[in-house]
């Protein structure tokens, strides 16, 4: 992962080069990469200007996106150089690489790096399946690079004890962890060059066909609902004695097949006795789902399935255009089922996530573990099943997973943007199985339902708005709930920034450039990119390229936001239009612009001017 070999490396400053040379990799935990530097100045440079590139490098090599955590540790032993600095990959504006703080809670890599750790939150999942490494061997042999970080077992055990409520065991394990951290701080434990472990020879995939299919996966795992963390949840450690010495050696990997143990942390989901299942997320419930004639039947079917899994409608297939609440309904079903029976083993995944999980399990020779994770569930919910199109091996695996669950009388719930008969790019045997249960659709909401949706959104966002304003918005935005709610946020932000009351007139003015009144207008990402590039005096190549300066990132995020607002494209489709970025990058851009919109009048002006120019160009 040589960052200096990246096309943009020539533009690195001397300060950045010095900071790169100062970086020592410590360990990799789920969603977190822990790095060490020897000065506060180097830490600031890494966090401010290098973390995105480093995170992208990890994502390219490991297949997983992680947050970058930097620790200052002047007494740390420095491992010998093994071929240079880490390699970079092409860029993306990703949340995990900008904040510098991990999204995960509990005992994290920051604690492992010698810093004071935060308390473990019950239910937090950390699942590195690693064994303790020999400190002395790590400091004297090149094979030490393949040894696993010695604190990860303890971290895992602390989290499991906290999750099970065993306070005495948790206290005992925390004491052991503190001793280990002290040993690390004093240089008695090895610093692991885990980047070296990732360097696999060409053809290291278990099956060349899987490698080819991996190239079609355009994004890492999308964010999950709070009650389930499907790809990183806690699993029982592999028959490890909690009293095993921290310095137990690990066999070195065979030369012909480099080991990935400790490198790509396994994506495990517990499937026994409800382990690893998190609390329901109140954002996704049937109470917050607004019902109406367009979705009443589908909502009733989902409730019936949650109350009696696998006895009413199995599989349940829900379809409809993007932005009508299919994902909300899917998550609400899982949340309700979990509240009725906490022991249920429930997993929510997108089809992209299922594909990533399958590819990673094949790459790491963990197919049996993958099968257990999915085939020992009580309820499997797969969102956007249409995105399995073109992924032949993944479809084959999903077919067997479907059969295994169905024959075991386990519930399967699927969503798609079209009915089963229209999924012509999927295997026929999959489509016929989708058709053997209940097929139900969600239609665009009627006027009264749209008003009710706006009213619920205003209540949740604490927006004070009158009925006539809600009616005005509902009358002009009819096809997408996402578009409907976005219009409400826009008029609220405009009124707040202009310090004026939210009235129909102010709503008309705020929405004048985006009212969907031209049916024949064709707005595409290409049009949006061209207009945004001209507006900000950039080229479209700069907007879709790897550049990370503020001059480029803000216009790029604005263009992504406008693609969300002015088109019906899915997140992955928008990401592909911006140089092949993943869908989480688009989500992050949308979130950042919404934050700026609420606080910055300049951003609102930019959006209004860009929207007007985009519509003018789209009219031809």
Automatic annotation (TrEMBL):
<keyword id="KW-0547">Nucleotide-binding</keyword>
<dbReference type="GO" id="GO:0005524">
    <property type="term" value="F:ATP binding"/>
</dbReference>
<dbReference type="GO" id="GO:0008289">
    <property type="term" value="F:lipid binding"/>
</dbReference>
<dbReference type="InterPro" id="IPR003593">
    <property type="entry name" value="AAA+_ATPase"/>
</dbReference>
<dbReference type="InterPro" id="IPR013159">
    <property type="entry name" value="DnaA_C"/>
</dbReference>
<feature type="domain" description="Chromosomal replication initiator DnaA C-terminal">
    <location>
        <begin position="524"/>
        <end position="593"/>
    </location>
</feature>
<dbReference type="InterPro" id="IPR001957">
    <property type="entry name" value="Chromosome_initiator_DnaA"/>
</dbReference>
<keyword id="KW-0446">Lipid-binding</keyword>
<feature type="region of interest" description="Disordered">
    <location>
        <begin position="216"/>
        <end position="279"/>
    </location>
</feature>
<dbReference type="GO" id="GO:0003688">
    <property type="term" value="F:DNA replication origin binding"/>
</dbReference>
<dbReference type="GO" id="GO:0005737">
    <property type="term" value="C:cytoplasm"/>
</dbReference>
<comment type="subunit">
    <text>Oligomerizes as a right-handed, spiral filament on DNA at oriC.</text>
</comment>
<feature type="region of interest" description="Domain I, interacts with DnaA modulators">
    <location>
        <begin position="1"/>
        <end position="232"/>
    </location>
</feature>
<dbReference type="GO" id="GO:0005886">
    <property type="term" value="C:plasma membrane"/>
</dbReference>
<dbReference type="InterPro" id="IPR013317">
    <property type="entry name" value="DnaA_dom"/>
</dbReference>
<dbReference type="GO" id="GO:0006270">
    <property type="term" value="P:DNA replication initiation"/>
</dbReference>
<feature type="domain" description="AAA+ ATPase">
    <location>
        <begin position="312"/>
        <end position="440"/>
    </location>
</feature>
<feature type="region of interest" description="Disordered">
    <location>
        <begin position="76"/>
        <end position="140"/>
    </location>
</feature>
<feature type="binding site">
    <location>
        <position position="326"/>
    </location>
    <ligand>
        <name>ATP</name>
    </ligand>
</feature>
<dbReference type="InterPro" id="IPR020591">
    <property type="entry name" value="Chromosome_initiator_DnaA-like"/>
</dbReference>
<feature type="compositionally biased region" description="Low complexity">
    <location>
        <begin position="95"/>
        <end position="113"/>
    </location>
</feature>
<comment type="similarity">
    <text>Belongs to the DnaA family.</text>
</comment>
<feature type="binding site">
    <location>
        <position position="323"/>
    </location>
    <ligand>
        <name>ATP</name>
    </ligand>
</feature>
<keyword id="KW-0238">DNA-binding</keyword>
<feature type="binding site">
    <location>
        <position position="325"/>
    </location>
    <ligand>
        <name>ATP</name>
    </ligand>
</feature>
<dbReference type="Pfam" id="PF08299">
    <property type="entry name" value="Bac_DnaA_C"/>
</dbReference>
<comment type="function">
    <text>Plays an essential role in the initiation and regulation of chromosomal replication. ATP-DnaA binds to the origin of replication (oriC) to initiate formation of the DNA replication initiation complex once per cell cycle. Binds the DnaA box (a 9 base pair repeat at the origin) and separates the double-stranded (ds)DNA. Forms a right-handed helical filament on oriC DNA; dsDNA binds to the exterior of the filament while single-stranded (ss)DNA is stabiized in the filament's interior.</text>
</comment>
<feature type="region of interest" description="Domain IV, binds dsDNA">
    <location>
        <begin position="496"/>
        <end position="620"/>
    </location>
</feature>
<dbReference type="InterPro" id="IPR018312">
    <property type="entry name" value="Chromosome_initiator_DnaA_CS"/>
</dbReference>
<keyword id="KW-0067">ATP-binding</keyword>
<feature type="region of interest" description="Domain III, AAA+ region">
    <location>
        <begin position="279"/>
        <end position="495"/>
    </location>
</feature>
<feature type="binding site">
    <location>
        <position position="327"/>
    </location>
    <ligand>
        <name>ATP</name>
    </ligand>
</feature>
<keyword id="KW-0235">DNA replication</keyword>
<dbReference type="GO" id="GO:0006275">
    <property type="term" value="P:regulation of DNA replication"/>
</dbReference>
<protein>
    <recommendedName>
        <fullName>Chromosomal replication initiator protein DnaA</fullName>
    </recommendedName>
</protein>
<dbReference type="InterPro" id="IPR010921">
    <property type="entry name" value="Trp_repressor/repl_initiator"/>
</dbReference>
<feature type="compositionally biased region" description="Low complexity">
    <location>
        <begin position="244"/>
        <end position="263"/>
    </location>
</feature>
<dbReference type="Pfam" id="PF00308">
    <property type="entry name" value="Bac_DnaA"/>
</dbReference>
<dbReference type="InterPro" id="IPR027417">
    <property type="entry name" value="P-loop_NTPase"/>
</dbReference>
<keyword id="KW-0963">Cytoplasm</keyword>
């Amino acid at each position: 992962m040589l960052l200096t070999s990246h096309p943009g490396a020539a533009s690195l400053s001397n300060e950045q080069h010095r900071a790169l040379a100062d970086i020592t990799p410590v360990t990799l935990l789920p969603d977190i990469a822990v790095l060490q530097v020897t000065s506060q100045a180097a830490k600031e440079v890494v966090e401010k200007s290098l973390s995105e590139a480093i995170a992208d490098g990890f994502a390219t090599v490991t297949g997983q996106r992680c947050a970058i955590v930097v620790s200052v540790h002047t007494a740390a032993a420095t491992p010998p150089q093994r071929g240079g600095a880490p390699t970079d990959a092409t860029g993306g504006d990703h949340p995990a690489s900008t904040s510098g703080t991990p999204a995960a809670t509990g005992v994290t890599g920051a604690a492992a790096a010698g810093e004071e750790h935060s308390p473990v939150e019950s239910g937090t999942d950390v699942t590195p399946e690693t064994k303790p490494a020999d400190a002395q061997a790590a400091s004297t042999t090149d094979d030490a690079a393949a040894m696993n970080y010695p604190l990860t077992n303890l971290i895992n055990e602390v989290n499991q004890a906290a999750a099970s409520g065993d306070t005495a065991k948790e206290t005992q394990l925390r004491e052991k962890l503190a001793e280990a951290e002290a040993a690390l701080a004093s240089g008695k434990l090895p610093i692991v060059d885990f980047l070296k472990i990732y360097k696999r020879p060409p053809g290291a995939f278990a099956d060349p066909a899987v490698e080819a299919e991996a190239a079609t996966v355009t994004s890492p795992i999308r964010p999950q609902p709070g009650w389930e963390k499907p790809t990183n949840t806690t699993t029982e450690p592999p028959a490890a004695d909690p009293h095993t010495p921290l310095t137990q050696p690990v066999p070195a990997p065979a030369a012909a097949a480099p080991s990935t143990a400790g490198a790509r942390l396994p994506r495990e989901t517990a499937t026994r006795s409800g382990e690893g299942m998190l609390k329901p997320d109140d954002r996704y419930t049937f109470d917050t789902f607004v019902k109406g004639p367009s979705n009443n039947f589908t909502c009733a079917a989902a409730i019936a399935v949650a109350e009696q899994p696998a006895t009413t409608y199995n599989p349940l297939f829900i379809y409809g255009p993007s932005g009508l609440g299919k994902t909300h309904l899917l998550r609400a079903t899982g949340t309700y089922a979990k509240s009725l029976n906490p022991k249920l083993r429930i997993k929510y995944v997108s089809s992209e996530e299922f594909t990533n999980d399958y590819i990673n399990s094949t790459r790491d020779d963990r197919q049996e573990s993958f099968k257990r994770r999915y085939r020992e569930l009580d309820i499997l919910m797969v969102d956007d099943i249409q995105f399995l199109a073109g992924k032949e091996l993944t479809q084959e695996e999903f077919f067997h997973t479907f059969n295994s669950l169905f024959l075991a009388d386990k519930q399967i719930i699927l969503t798609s943007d079209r009915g089963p008969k229209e999924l012509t790019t999927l295997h026929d045997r999959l489509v016929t199985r989708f058709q053997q249960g209940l097929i139900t659709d969600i239609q665009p909401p009627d006027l009264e339902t749209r008003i009710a949706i706006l009213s619920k959104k205003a209540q949740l966002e604490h927006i004070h708005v009158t009925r006539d304003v809600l009616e005005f918005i509902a009358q002009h935005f009819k096809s997408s709930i996402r578009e409907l709610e976005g219009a409400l946020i826009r008029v609220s932000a405009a009124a707040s920034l202009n310090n004026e009351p939210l009235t129909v007139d102010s709503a008309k003015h705020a929405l004048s450039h985006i009212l969907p009144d031209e049916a024949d207008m064709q707005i595409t990402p290409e049009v949006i990119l061209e207009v945004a590039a001209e507006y900000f005096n950039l080229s479209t190549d700069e907007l879709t390229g790897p550049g990370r300066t503020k001059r480029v990132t803000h216009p790029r995020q604005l263009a992504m936001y406008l693609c969300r607002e002015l088109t019906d494209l899915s997140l992955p489709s928008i990401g592909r239009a911006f140089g092949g970025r993943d869908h989480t990058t688009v989500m992050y851009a949308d979130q950042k612009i919404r934050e700026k919109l609420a606080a910055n009048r300049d951003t609102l002006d930019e959006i209004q001017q860009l929207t007007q120019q985009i519509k003018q160009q789209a009219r031809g």
